[in-house]
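Incident log, structure service

09:12 report received: a user says their structure output differs between two submissions of the same chain.
09:20 pulled the input from the user's history:
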Amino acid sequence: MMGLAWEVCCLLVVAAGARARVTHPPAGHTFNTSDYLQQRRAILAQEQTDILGQDQVLSAEEEVVNKILMAAKDAEMEDGFQTLDFLPSKNFMTVIQQIEESQVFKIIRQMPKGAALHLHDTALASASWVVQELTYWPHLYMCYDTDDHLLFRFFEKPDTSCAWELVSAVRSNYVDPSEFDAMLFSKLSLLTEDPDEKYPDINTVWSIFQGYFIAITDLVMYRPAWEAYLYHSLGEFADDNVLYVEFRGTLPQLYELNGTRLTEEESVAVYRDTTQRFVNDNPDRFFGARFIYAPPRGVDNATVHEYVSLMKRLKKAFPDFVAGFDLVGQEDKGEPLIAFVDELLQLSEADIRVFYHAGETNWMGMETDDNIIDALLLNASRIGHGYALVKHPEAKALARERDVPMEVCPISNQVLRLVEDLRNHPAASLVAEGFPIVVSPDDPGAWGASGLSYDMYEAFMAFGGAKADLRFLKQLAINSINYSSLDDVTEYDLMYKWVEKWNEFVAKAPTLLAESTVNLTAEADPHITQSSTSTTTYAPPMIV
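09:34 re-ran on a clean worker, output below:
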């Protein structure tokens, strides 16, 4: 009994010490309403200041745009609050049309968004374009493998590895060819009217997602098709007012019609040359792109050693185009980073930048979410997703200390079943405390998005809450450039180009005002702290 009593006393002493650390009014203090409200205002003001981007100072012209933007946002937020019909709380695939009708979305579409830094190459372009364009090319064959996965391949003469059928011949058998195209679309997209029924859990949606990549890879890895696909994809981002992208790829070797395979170096050269051709054709709309070599993580150590060797060769051959290294695939089922630490440390020794997917999971205390820690210790420049970061306070503190941003992909995390209501996404907590993030679309072509605007809309409405305004969006654009893999001089050139585009956008405020359908004469919400006002347009920081 004495032992138990002693243990209870010790616990009570510890609890008393914890309570003593809490600040209370002194004995005899009278707490009146005025004091209470003053303290409340102070807390709210500090929280407002902490929101990502709130230290941005808007010019008078930007304040006009902000008024338009916030009038539209306030109307949507109020409607969602009253009706519970709030778009970010619903699966993206069921509300695409409603988002496109949103006044907030229309403004974001016109806004220069800087860069998209987390993308996968075979999910860049709209599935509708792939079906309507590439599947109408001659010499394209299709078949189903033993696992019922749809395969595509361009041939002069099909091999005997599968029961290949000419796509044009199969299409001609349909009375209505659009029915065949709809079937192809269903294999080249995750879009569905009822995602909850079709994708009831993470493993199910990931299994179907892998089928998407199986279907599209050999379709777009035909060298002429890849050139057309990448060129069109960059056009979709340029149309969405994105100036620069960094895209990941597993780097399957491109092939010719006669079956010849290009080497990895030859394939990357095609990536680079196609990108440069698009930049040359669109010098005012697009700045450039870089490639991150990102092979699958579900392999053994010997294979990762081969990855590292190839990465070193690519970096030497393409120092200005190949940005760095990553490992991709479903983290819950793939190998953790710690399994490959000996091989991956070689990249740090070779001064090769890494951008690891880490913490793309709902679990806590498992190897998957511990990837966050390993990504940081392996000197990641950015962390892909970082969904589990808020469960690792030491890792979060280290990331902030090292200024390592999370690449947040809201729609991807929702479609792939990590979160249903984006208001509950952990990035909302990161935004509230001003933690560095960049927003990116991950695989927009797989779920009916295009460019970056859809994800920016979701982040603005769900992560920023009612109080995040134009400063938040502006900070995201600036972050996307500051946290790119570009060297200082090239980064400055990109920032300068973005500033020019931003100021042009701000100058369109009267047009936005005339086209907006929301009531812009209403007084500002008294609960929203107004930003400081400057009369100068934004200028990039000088690089010393």
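09:41 both user submissions now match this output. Likely a transient worker issue. Closing.
09:42 reviewer note: The longest strand covers residues 115-120. The mean pLDDT is 91.
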